[in-house]
Write a structure and sequence with these properties.
Elements lengths: L2 E5 L6 H12 L1 E6 L17 H6 L2 E2 L12 H17 L3 E6 L2 H8 L10 H14 L1 H11 L1 H6 L5 H14 L18 E7 L2 H18 L1 H10 L14 H8 L5 H23 L6 E4 L5 H18 L1
Parallel strand pairs: 1-4, 1-5, 2-3, 2-4, 5-6
Helix pairs in contact: 1-13, 3-4, 5-6, 5-8, 6-8, 9-12, 10-11, 11-12
Length: about 300
C-alpha cells in the first residue's frame, strides 16, 4: 500500500496520527488543507510545528503568497507531482487534511467544469466592489444553496467562480461535484477520524484558545502590516476574519473567541456530513482510543490490505 489518506473534521487529530504513521511506514505527508499552502497562515491553520516538519517531510505547506489564487485543480496538479516524487523514493504517500473537495480530487477525477468567462468575472467583480461580496453570496445561496452552505465564509474567489459557472451553464456549481459512482483507486486506503460530538467540540474550543495564546492576533497584525488587503481570499476564512474584525474594533475579544469556536464547529459539521457520503472509508473511532491505538488500527488495515492483494 503506497498511498494512505488520513482525513476527518477539523481538530480531530489528523496531524498527530499522520506523523506517527509516516514514522512507522517511512512515509512523507502531503497536506490537503486549502489554507496551509499559504505562507504566514501558521497559527490560524494549525500547521505542523517546526519540530514536526523537521521530523517528517511535508509537502504543500507555505508554498503560496497570500495574494495568489489557488484552486482544487491547481492543488490536484501539485499533489500528483508530490505523489510521483515520493513514490520515486519508494516511500509511502500520506495525504492528511480536511478540505473536502481537495481530498475528493485525489480519489476521483475532477469533473469537467467550464473555464472562467472573463466578461462574467469582470462584471461580478464590479458588483462585489459596489455592493459587497455578501450581496453575491446571497445570490449564490438562492442559485446554489448546497455549495453556499459548504463554503468557509465569504470566499470571494469561490463565490465569483460559482456564479460565473451558473451564468454560463444554468447549472449549480455543486452539480459539477457529484459524489456518484466514486470508485476508490486500488492503491489507496482512506481513513476518517471520528470523535463523539461533545469531545470534538471540546477539542475545537481548546484549540481556539491555544491559537489565541500562541499569538493568532499578532500573526494577523503582522500580515496586515505587510500590506496585504483584509479582503483577500486567504483571510476570509475561520479565525482570520474574526481576528481582523477584532483588530478593526468591530468585535470585543470575548465575542471574537466565541465566533471562532462557533464557525469552526459549523465547519466541522459540514465536513462530517461530506465524509458520510463516502462508502469506502475505514472509520477510526477515536473517542475511546489513544493515539497509539488509532495508529495500530491503521497499521492493521494496511497489513491486511497488503495480504489480500
Amino acid at each position: 500500500m503506497k498511498r494512505i489518506m488520513i482525513a476527518g473534521p477539523t481538530a480531530s487529530g489528523k496531524t498527530a496520527l499522520s506523523i506517527k504513521l509516516a514514522e512507522h511506514l517511512s512515509g512523507e505527508i502531503i497536506s490537503v488543507d486549502s489554507r496551509q499552502s499559504y505562507r504566514y497562515l501558521d497559527i490560524g491553520t494549525a500547521k505542523p510545528s517546526k519540530n514536526e516538519l523537521d521530523k517528517i517531510p511535508h509537502h504543500n505547506i507555505s508554498i503560496l503568497d497570500l495574494k495568489e489564487k489557488d484552486s482544487v485543480a491547481a492543488f490536484k496538479n501539485r499533489a500528483d507531482k508530490y505523489t510521483e516524487e515520493i513514490q520515486s523514493k519508494d516511500k509511502t504517500v500520506i495525504y492528511c487534511g480536511g478540505s473536502t473537495l481537495h481530498l475528493q480530487s485525489i480519489i476521483k477525477p475532477l469533473d469537467k467544469i467550464p473555464t472562467s468567462n472573463s466578461d462574467n468575472v469582470h462584471e461580478l467583480e464590479e458588483i462585489a466592489e459596489k455592493k459587497g461580496i455578501e450581496y453575491l453570496f446571497n445570490e449564490l445561496q438562492l442559485k446554489d444553496p448546497e455549495y453556499a452552505n459548504k463554503m468557509d465564509g465569504f470566499n470571494r474567489q469561490r463565490i465569483i467562480r460559482a456564479l460565473d459557472v451558473w451564468r454560463q451553464t444554468g447549472r449549480p456549481f455543486s452539480s459539477f461535484h457529484s459524489n456518484d459512482k466514486i470508485q476508490l483507486p486500488q492503491d489507496l486506503l482512506v481513513f476518517i477520524i471520528d470523535r463523539p460530538r461533545i469531545e470534538l467540540h471540546k477539542r475545537i474550543s481548546d484549540r481556539t484558545e491555544q491559537m489565541i495564546e500562541k499569538g493568532l492576533l499578532a500573526e494577523v497584525r503582522m500580515i496586515l502590516d505587510k500590506g496585504y488587503d483584509r479582503n483577500i481570499q486567504a483571510l476570509q476564512t475561520v479565525g482570520y476574519r474574526e481576528a481582523i474584525s477584532f483588530i478593526d474594533g468591530e468585535l470585543p475579544n470575548d465575542q471574537m473567541v466565541k465566533d471562532i469556536k462557533t464557525a469552526t464547529r459549523r465547519y466541522a459539521k459540514r465536513q462530517i456530513t461530506w465524509f458520510r457520503r463516502w462508502p469506502f472509508i475505514h472509520q477510526l473511532n477515536a473517542g475511546e482510543s489513544t493515539e497509539e491505538q488509532l495508529l495500530n488500527q491503521v497499521l492493521q488495515k494496511v497489513a491486511a490490505n497488503r495480504q489480500n492483494r
